[in-house]
What we know:
By secondary structure, the chain is mostly helical.
Amino acid sequence: MPGAARRSLASPVVNGVLCQCGGAVPAAAEGTLGAGSPLPPSASPLLEHEQRLKRLFVQLDVNRDGALCVHDLAVGLQRLGLHRSERDLWKIVKAGDKDLDGQLDFEEFVHYLQDHEKKLRLVFKSLDKKNDGCIDAQEIMQSLRDLGVKISEQQAEKILKRIRTGHFWGPVTYMDKNGTMTIDWNEWRDYHLLHPVENIPEIILYWKHSTIFDVGENLTVPDEFTVEERQTGMWWRHLVAGGGAGAVSRTCTAPLDRLKVLMQVHASRSNNMCIVGGFSQMIREGGPRSLWRGNGINVLKIAPESAIKFMAYEQIKRFIGTDQDVLRIHERLVAGSLAGAIAQSSIYPMEVLKTRMALRKTGQYTGMLDCAKNILTKEGVAAFYKGYIPNMLGIIPYAGIDLAVYETLKNSWLQHYAVNSADPGVFVLLACGTISSTCGQLASYPLALVRTRMQAQASVEGAPQVTMRGLFKHILKTEGAFGLYRGLAPNFMKVIPAVSISYVVYENLKMTLGVESR
Length: 518
């Protein structure tokens, strides 16, 4: 398509108001204050920029009340040839609305555009791998590859050449206006200036996994955070929200988790526990409150484990020496697995305590401290690290398969359905998190079962004190391969409610802590 034709399809906002080409202002805006009137040659760049923003504000102020509401933006942008969804328009208003009156006055409008331009510049710099002031197809491919999304050069050129804005049936506008198959800063800024930041780093914002979802096993690879999240301090708010969500989620699914532990330790061919029978047995032995035995220590270990894993992950990233803000998939797996091993090593005595508290009988211990004192007195310090080796070995299959499945599902969705935004929506995100967590647990479950039985050895009267290898042989000999998956049913039953509850609580805590809504 010729360059002139490209420019005729470009946004009138760019041609008529923001850029320096002196294009005509749309007919819908004729007669408005200052619209289309040339600036004198002596006007300073700052004054010229302010007058251009003023003309744009007047064009968008449909009802002429001196403020922009969602309706004004919808109608005004449509007149200028830009189609935005209602959600996108609310993002713009909420981002700039300092006095919380549901609309933007001129000062708020200018501040929003200035802040938005800073974000766009950060994104542009992160994409401009060659630091030559332009983004080409190879740089688009590399940036997406760093996030685990593989595209062809032809697809990358399509991203440069044509981007649909707003609804998928809306008009096509061109970011690469001069047809050079590269995008310079001015083209990037003008194209995205009146659009919420929907670009490659947005994938990191929308596709958080480890922070949001908690299924009781904190073995997943930590999430990445964008440059903006690090600079504004939003990362720790995400971690706090994730920790709170995990506490609520684990508490709500604690009865299923305790049943899983009981079935892992006590179930066998001669003692075939079922789900209903297991719950009935727990209630008969200790009443309804006994369903939550071991939950207190399970919730308490969230904070130190998450903090240690995050700090270790950041240090390992520096040790790897990559100059990328976002690690590649294999680098994430290595860094995440090592960070998980460090965190698990630090809090592993709490894991043993959790298992012993879940298996205790009524009146056996007065509390967590009494349980710890009893173990230390009768079994020594080494008892707090029983099952440590199978636990460490379980990190790699769990984290690796969870990460691989999640990235595969994410990559597939982004390639086939991400037309306007990287936002997958609640149901897609929940489905991907549930499937990947389930696959990770299925792969590492035999190791988790052996770990739990080794942790419980001293608490089960007459149980043989065997090694990991000996325990595997014993289970396969007496129960067959099925014996390695005892308790799998209640474990899988808790995945969907755990993921759903943690997501809902995470979103609410995130708003309470002042994290910007995605």
